[in-house]
Every structure is written in C-alpha cells, then in structure tokens.
Task: inverse folding
C-alpha cells in the first residue's frame, strides 16, 4: 500500500478577481489560482470550490481551457449555503479549490465536424467552455449551432455575449423561453421545439447537450429522430457530489460514478443505464 | 503458510506485550447476548466463540466521523490532518476480513484515500476461525468463509487451550515471536485446524443462498422491474441502520463546523447511507432517488451487482448484520436473492 502525506481533500487557494451579475440569481466569478499555474481543465470538467467554514460544492468551469492564463470562470446560481455565501464574496477574497475532476467533451472528436450545442437553463455554463474553445480555434471546426432555452426572460444569462454571438458569423444562435413576458420578442416554447428548426447534416454533427433532467428526456429523442446516432451525442449529468473522487457514493448512477466516469457521457454509454436519464 | 502452536496460557503475556504499542481490541460478550469488539485490558474476557460482532469493524479504518482538513478562517488557509493510531484487532472472522479487503480495494482505486490507508496500515489484523454461526449469517454460501490475505496472523482454536496460528505477514510473525520461540505446528495440528474450518463451513450451510453466489450479478441484471422491490420498500423506514452496520457500506457525507469566534474550522466526513431520504437530495429539492423503492433496489443492486461489476466480488459478505438491525425485517440479502432466484426459475 502506498501511503503518502498527501490529502486529495486539501483545497488550493484561489483569489476572486472579477464578479459580475448575470441575472437576479446567477453571478459570474473569475478566480485566479494563487499557485501561479493554470487550472489545466478540459471543457465539461468541474472543480470543488470551498468557502472555508461554510462548505464545498461542485461547479463546472465555464471558461475555455487556456494554458496562458491562471484565471478561470465559474457561473453560479444562488440556491443554498455555499452558493449563497459565494454571492457575498468581494474581489480579493480567498476561496479553496480542488480539481479539475471528471470526464470532459473530447475536443478531438469535434474537430472538422459541426457541433449542435443544446443548452437548457444553466446548462449553458459548462457548454460555454467548449464553445469558447471552438471559437478560439474557429478554423478547426465546422458549423457551430447553438440552441438556448430558458424558463423565462428574467432567468436568461450571458445576454450580452449571446447577442454578440447572434450578430456575428461564427455561431448560428437560436433562443427560446418557455414562458415569455412583455419584454420578450423572440421564440417561445420549450427548447425541443427549436431542434426541428435547424437544418443539420446528421453524418457530420456532434451534439453537446446540457440542461435539467427533464430536458434530456425530450431532447435526446428529438436528436435521434433527426438522425444523429447516440455515440455522437454528449450530455453532462448532474448528481449530488461530496468528494469528487469516486469515494463518497453520492453521485452514483447505477454502477457509474458521475464524478469519475461523468459528468460528461457519450449517450450510448448510458442509454441502457436505468437511472441515468 | 508458516504456522505455530500457541497455548492459551501464553496468550495473556502476548496481549500484554502487544498492548504496549497498540490499542488491542478483542471480541467480548455485551448486553443482550450479543458480542462486540472492545478494548482489551487486564481482566477482559475474550469470547473466542463469538458468533458475530454486533457493530462492523469498518469503524477502525473509516470512523463514523473523521476530520479531513482544518481551516484558519481569518488567514483563509487550510491544512490536512491525519490520525492513525496503532491498533490491533484480535479475533476477526474471515468474512469480516473479506469486508476489510473489499474496502481496501475500493479505497485504493482511483485517487487513493490516504486517510483510510493510513489507518489501515497502522492496524494489525489477527483473524480467527469462527466456532459458531449467527442465526442471520450466510457467509458460508457467499464465498466469504475463507480468506487468504488481509491478516497478519490467523488463529484457529484446535483444542480447549491450544491454537494453530498461521502467519500472514512478517509484521505478524514478528509480533507473535516477540516473547520467544514457539513450536512450529505439527501436521496433526494443521489437520485439526482444517477440520475446525470444515466444521464451521458446514454449520454455516444451514442458512444459505440457494444457488451459486457467482450467479447473483447476472440474476440481478434481469430483476430491475421485479415486484419484490416495491413489496419490501413499502415497509422501509429509511432509518439507514442496514447501511450503518454493513461492513462493506462506506458512503460518507462531508460537512464542516466553525468555532464561535469564526477563527478555526474543521471539515470532516461522516457515515452516510443510501437508504436515507437525503442521500441523493440536491439543492432546489430535487431528489435523484426520491422513492423508497429506488433506494431499496439501489442498495441490493450495489451489493449483488454494481460492486461485482467493478471489483469482481459481491458487495455483500453475508455477515447478517443488516438482517439483525432492520426493525421491519426487510433487510435480508439472502432472502432477497433467493426470492428473485426462485422467481427467475419459473420464468424460464
Ligand atoms: C458536475 C456539477 C457541475 C455543476 N456546475 C454548476 C455550475 O456551473 N453552476 C451552478 O450554479 N451550479 C452548478 N452545479 C450545482 C451546484 O453544485 C449546486 O447548486 C450546489 O452544490 C449547491 O450548494 P449549496 O451549498 O449552495 O446548497 P445546499 O443545499 O446548502 O447544499 C449542501 C451541499 O450538498 C451538495 N449539493 C447540493 N446540491 C447539489 C447539486 N445540485 N449538485 C451537486 N451537489 C449538490 C453540495 O455538496 C453542497 O455543498 C453543478 C453540480 C454538479 C454536480
Ligand atoms: S448487506 Fe447485510 S449481510 Fe451483506 S455484508 Fe452488509 S450487513 Fe452483512
Ligand atoms: S434497516 Fe430496514 S427499515 Fe432501516 S433503512 Fe434498512 S431496510 Fe429500511
Ligand atoms: S462525488 Fe463522491 S463518489 Fe462521486
């Protein structure tokens, strides 16, 4: 047995650099690693973030993997203890991080192909990492189609960035809200209704889909219907997570650990896993 | 395996000697006709013929509550903390050593759990051939009646005051011989130990799985929709007792506390259980296993299939502790697997 004076549970320090409100409940945080080293994450991976004395929680890294920078971004919705206190952090405050952990979107498989991004609600946060990577290396990828669905206009996040993308040539953006209000002029209805609206070539398109559990139930079927095989569909599954190391058991999906084999799964890996979708 | 003959009158001096460096724990009778491991002291009577230790021995490697990291909240710094007292478990039955070996495997896989490994390394395990079988136990039919690793010494009582002691590690042999040379076991003594082992395996068969345990994973493959889950789960109190007493249940929660002045904090892990309603509950009140049926089924799938698919052995060693602990009499892997097996025989 290898015994080392080392703890996988020991967080490393990071400093809050930028904080920006994205919606009433969601805030974008940019942290810098105190180590002076980049995070070295891959798109779709997550970290465990600690606010000492309060707790620790998993968050997807939302920024693209960049070797030249020690900074990384998270977008966090205020919903409980850790996420609540995070919203009170001030620039310059210290937090602890562990990771990056988990599986990721295999960038190489997306090269030279079209990508259909399907982002439901906060699902845009992890997808943004892959999207930004593709934009940074735009020539290496085919068409980028981005479908965004939000419950209502008030909950929309990254509004300015989406507007910028929509007005540019790099990404084809289609957005919808489930329940509109008087400010909303765009498409209405659940995100599934956007899928038949895009013309795609199923033989050279990969799908990267992240959203709430209910979204998967409908969107996966819709993707298969337009001819995309399940081994070209990638989803990210959220589960309760405590350790991120495959030990605490909370993230189990049948025999799988969402923190090790996931959160990103190729759909054919989990099609027959009863508890997955 | 090297083996020695040890006489009961030699044991006392040995225990006293081992106690100098280790906290020694031994099986002893407790209230209600049960047995449990307790610290050995002068005068503590060892129950060599105990049938089952009420509480699981996992607590010596994975304590119910264990500190992981301490914080200085003012300076916002964190430090790891390890605690691994030197201890000796004397008299562990083979099925429980199997349980420990399984935890070893799980904790060493992927990111090795240094907290567990520290404690495991500081713990000496002396096995003991059982002389009685608990009414609820079925380890004999689960392939858990024998063990060939995971112990430092293995003791078998071969007569009223004699033991055959097999050596499992150099550390064990050194401890055994610390007080002086011992007689190497004769062929006759080895034969007596073999017979004692066969006898207990035979006794264990009175309460058994009705089919080869290696079939359990493939049986469960076909049982996701069995009506049994609902029938049992209806009575489940979600008390988590079956998780707590189980030697191979290791899931834990991670929490933390800060002192009143908010100067120091500590993050610790604490036993958790998949049968508790909060286990898969996340912020926003979404529960990934909200129904009793889902939780009950998950536990048996882990015991009979998921662990097997990952580690090549069943996640249940047949100790029978959960059977004893469940107040509504639904926790019983032997009965669940037998019932499912029975039903599957009628299907084909
Ligand atoms: C892989 C992954 C990526 C995630 N990415 C993001 C993200 O980018 N942005 C974002 O806002 N949220 C994300 N979440 C959800 C986020 O982790 C939860 O909202 C958060 O844990 C709630 O913590 P809390 O302390 O505020 O809530 P509390 O209800 O006080 O939760 C207490 C603890 O339970 C656990 N827990 C509770 N809810 C969840 C949950 N939904 N998922 C996992 N563990 C949970 C955590 O350990 C948490 O600290 C992600 C979850 C996972 C599993
Ligand atoms: S499931 Fe029950 S019988 Fe099996 S190892 Fe755990 S406590 Fe023992
Ligand atoms: S001990 Fe029995 S009642 Fe309690 S959680 Fe386990 S199965 Fe349910
Ligand atoms: S989060 Fe602990 S096992 Fe996955």
Result:
């Amino acid at each position: 047995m290898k015994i080392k004076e080392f703890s996988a549970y020991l967080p490393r320090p990071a400093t809050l650099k930028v904080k920006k409100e994205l919606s009433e409940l969601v805030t974008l945080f940019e942290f810098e690693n105190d180590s002076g080293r980049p995070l070295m994450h891959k798109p779709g991976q997550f970290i465990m973030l600690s606010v000492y004395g309060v707790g620790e929680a998993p968050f997807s890294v939302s920024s693209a993997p960049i070797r030249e920078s020690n900074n990384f971004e998270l977008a966090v919705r205020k919903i409980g203890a850790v996420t609540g206190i995070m919203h009170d952090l001030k620039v310059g405050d210290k937090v602890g991080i562990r990771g990056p952990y988990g599986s990721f979107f295999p960038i190489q498989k997306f090269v030279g192909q079209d990508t259909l991004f399907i982002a439901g609600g906060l699902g845009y946060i992890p997808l943004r990492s892959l999207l930004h990577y593709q934009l940074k290396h735009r020539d290496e990828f085919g068409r980028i189609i981005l479908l965004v669905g939000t419950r209502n206009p008030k909950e929309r996040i990254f509004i300015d960035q989406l507007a910028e993308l929509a007005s540019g040539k790099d990404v084809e953006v289609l957005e919808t809200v489930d329940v509109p209000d008087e400010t909303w002029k765009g498409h209405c209805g659940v995100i599934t209704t956007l899928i038949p609206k895009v013309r795609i070539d199923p033989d050279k398109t990969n799908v990267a889909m992240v959203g709430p559990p209910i979204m998967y139930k409908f969107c996966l079927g819709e993707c298969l219907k337009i001819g995309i095989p399940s081994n070209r569909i990638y989803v990210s599954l959220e589960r309760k997570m405590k350790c991120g190391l495959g030990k605490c058991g909370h993230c189990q999906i049948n025999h799988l650990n969402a923190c090790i084999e996931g959160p990103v799964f190729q759909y054919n890996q989990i099609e027959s896993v009863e508890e997955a979708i | 395996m090297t083996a020695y003959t040890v006489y009961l009158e030699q044991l006392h001096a040995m225990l006293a000697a081992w106690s100098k460096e280790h906290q020694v724990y031994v099986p002893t009778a407790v209230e209600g006709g049960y047995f449990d491991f307790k610290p050995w002291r002068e005068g503590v009577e060892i129950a060599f013929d105990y049938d089952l230790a009420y509480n699981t021995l996992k607590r010596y490697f994975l304590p119910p509550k264990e500190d992981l990291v301490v914080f200085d909240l003012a300076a916002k710094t964190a430090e790891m903390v390890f605690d691994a007292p030197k201890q000796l478990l004397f008299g562990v039955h083979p099925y429980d050593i199997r349980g420990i070996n399984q935890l070893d495997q799980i904790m060493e896989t992927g990111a090795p759990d240094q907290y567990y490994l520290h404690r495991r390394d500081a713990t000496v395990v002396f096995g003991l051939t059982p002389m009685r079988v608990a009414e609820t136990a079925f380890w004999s039919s689960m392939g858990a009646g024998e063990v060939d690793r995971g112990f430092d010494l293995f003791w078998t009582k071969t007569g009223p005051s004699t033991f055959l002691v097999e050596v499992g590690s150099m550390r064990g042999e050194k401890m055994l011989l610390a007080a002086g040379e011992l007689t190497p076991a004769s062929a006759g003594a080895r034969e007596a130990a073999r017979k004692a082992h066969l006898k207990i395996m035979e006794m264990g068969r009175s309460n058994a799985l009705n089919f080869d345990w290696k079939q359990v994973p493939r049986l469960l493959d076909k049982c996701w929709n069995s009506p049994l889950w609902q029938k049992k789960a209806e009575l489940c109190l979600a008390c988590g007792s079956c998780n707590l007493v189980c030697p191979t249940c290791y899931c834990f929660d991670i929490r933390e506390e800060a002192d009143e002045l908010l100067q120091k904090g500590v993050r610790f892990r604490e036993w958790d259980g998949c049968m508790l309603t909060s286990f898969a509950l996340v912020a926003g009140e979404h529960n990934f296993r909200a129904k009793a049926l889902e939780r009950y089924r998950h536990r048996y799938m882990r015991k009979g299939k998921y662990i097997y698919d990952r580690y090549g052995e069943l996640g249940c060693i047949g100790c029978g502790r959960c059977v004893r602990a469940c107040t509504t009499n639904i926790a019983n892997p032997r009965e669940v697997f037998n019932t499912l097996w029975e039903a599957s025989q009628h299907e084909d």
Observations:
- Residues A 46, 55-60, 74-77, 79-84, 122, 125, 238-242, 263; B 282-283 surround flavin-adenine dinucleotide (ligand 1) (CB under 6 Å).
- Chain B has eleven helices and 14 strands.
- Residues 213-345 of chain B form one domain.
